[in-house]
Amino acid sequence: MAASKLTSLDDAATLVGDGALLGIGGVLLRRKPIAFLAALAAAGRRDLRVASFLASLDVDLLVARGAVAEVHAGYVGFEQLGFAPAFGRAAAAGEIRVLEYSELLFVSGLRASLAGLPFLPTRGARGSDLVAELGLREITCPYSGERLLAAPAIRPDVCVIHAEAADEHGNVLAPSTKDFLFDADANIARAADAVVVTAERIVPTSEIRRSGALLFSYEVTAVVEAPRGAWPTALPGVYGADIEAVRAYLAAAEVDPAAAAASVMQGPG
Amino acid sequence: MTPTVGEQITWSLARCCRPGDVLVVGVATPIAAAAGQLARELLVPNLTLIEAAAVDVAPHDVATPMVRPEVVAAEAVGVYTQAEILDAIQRGRVTLQFISPAQVDGAGTINTSRVRTSDGTMRRLPGGLAHADIACLIGRLVAYRAGHERRFLPERVDFVTGAAGRVATIVTSAAVLDWDGESWRLASLHEGVSREEAVAGCGFALDVPERVPTTEPPPPEALRLLREEIDPHGMRRLETREGRAAALRELEALS
């Protein structure tokens, strides 16, 4: 039996160094590993380069706490609730570098990394100003001569995701419901060199055998028990997003982003 | 029954669906989601409706995916993975999408990334999601907005998120515009809107035919379905300036 990978939020946070490329799981206001990000910010981490497919509170909180140098994302916002206040302010002030991806460019980058390849060809984003901004190059198909974009691999140093349950060895329970992009966390985790999983519950392996795994133990570096660890974002099938708390953050962050973020990062109380 | 702006746009979008279409609707666009369901119920029974990544979800309140996404997934025939839905789009299997970009210009180029403010600086928007991809991969795009002004319809976009070529129709709070291969043509005017207003709201030269019909208003059955079954909580108001605050309060109460 493999050794336990159970650790604390603070110890897991030491896996992420200053300047690291940090992959963050979750999509929009779902499954964001907020408790772990709070521990990172509390540890005073700086200059993080953050990769988050469709970001919301995850990126905004880290930016508000001054932990971020670079953001790689296809979206950073709160859908109908509004724009990301700290992110918008820092981007306008030139305090962070923002690399906007299209969804196909981002996911092609993850899939290249998943397969251990340096890039993946794609037909997405052709003719977009994003291509030059990201410094993307084209390749020619050796069979047809078609010109394709080469989406470079996205390979985070560390990735963090939040799940309903995991065992102490790092087997992660597959999501109980297949909501929008239920598998995205497995993609960004497997694209990374190290993986931190925070989970609502630590369960015996037998429980994961019954329902199936999202990630296998050998793919995971550290496991942390973090009840309500995605709050105030949702963990579909377990709890919904706390829209009232998110809106309160958005209002407070207009005035003082750092204080608003610190307040959310104290957790649901 | 007099339709609101949001209801008129919803019906005009629904009417863009054709038999056999595979329609994908994205996140945070309740009008697009409502239009897809309305089209499936009343106009195109064989429409394949993909909501985010969930395929052929049973009829439902458009507020549900915003507050209980897992319910919608459970009511779907199936759910694509993150890679599968993008593969389907890249391969060319998706024929139609309704989008709400910040700008569509006189060439049909779309911008969802950043806009120039009055002081000349660029303001970053949340981001283009898959707009750069779908602009060159999806059969037809229909762009919509509950507004009709040059800021939304400029001569040239401030930033090219998605290349020109696939936007077939623009639906605004005032009119429906069709791409005729070279320029935008005024296809119809919503009830009570003058052609002068429609022209004034465009930053590009609008082709105005001699006779411009009135946009078909939503029939009573469409309004009933929309108000009672598809969008009883009025989430369509989230996409209109005057209705947004009230709809947000309702959304919060539901969550």
Write the layout of secondary structure elements.
The complex is a heterodimer of chains A (269) and B (255).
Chain A: E1 6-7, H1 9-13, E2 21-24, H2 34-42, E3 48-55, H3 57-64, E4 68-76, H4 85-92, E5 97-100, H5 103-114, E6 119-122, H6 129-133, E7 137-140, E8 147-152, E9 158-166, E10 172-173, H7 184-191, E11 194-202, H8 205-211, E12 213-215, E13 222-225, H9 243-255, H10 257-264
Parallel strand pairs in A: 1-13, 2-3, 2-9, 3-4, 4-5, 9-11, 11-13
Antiparallel strand pairs in A: 6-8, 7-8, 10-12
Helix pairs in contact in A: 2-3, 3-4, 3-10, 5-7, 9-10
Chain B: H1 5-14, E1 22-25, H2 30-42, E2 48-51, E3 54-55, H3 64-67, H4 69-74, E4 78-79, H5 82-91, E5 96-99, E6 103-104, E7 110-111, E8 114-116, E9 122-124, H6 131-137, E10 140-144, E11 167-171, E12 175-179, E13 184-189, H7 195-200, H8 220-230, H9 244-254
Parallel strand pairs in B: 1-2, 1-5, 5-10, 10-11
Antiparallel strand pairs in B: 2-3, 3-4, 6-7, 8-9, 11-12, 12-13
Helix pairs in contact in B: 1-2, 2-8
How would you explain this protein's 3D organization?
The complex is a heterodimer of chains A (269) and B (255). With 269 residues, chain A is α/β, with parallel strands linked by helices. Helices cover 31% and strands 25% of the residues of chain A. Chain A contains 10 helices and 13 strands. Chain A has an 8-stranded parallel beta sheet, with helices on both faces. In chain A, a hairpin with a 6-residue loop joins strand 7 (137-140) and strand 8. In chain A, helix 3 packs across helix 10 (257-264), helix 5 (103-114) packs across helix 7 and helix 9 (243-255) runs antiparallel to helix 10 (257-264). The two termini of chain A are 36 Å apart. Chain B has 255 residues and is α/β, with parallel strands linked by helices. In chain B, 31% of the residues lie in helices and 18% in strands. Chain B has 9 helices and 13 strands. Chain B has helices at residues 5-14, 30-42, 64-67, 69-74, 82-91, 131-137, 195-200, 220-230, 244-254, and strands spanning 22-25, 48-51, 54-55, 78-79, 96-99, 103-104, 110-111, 114-116, 122-124, 140-144, 167-171, 175-179, 184-189. In chain B, the strands form 3 sheets. Chain B has a 9-stranded mixed beta sheet, sandwiched between helices. The longest helix of chain B is centred in the first third of the chain and has 13 residues, at 30-42. The two termini of chain B are 30 Å apart. The mean pLDDT of chain B is 95. The chains are: A alpha/beta (269), B alpha/beta (255).
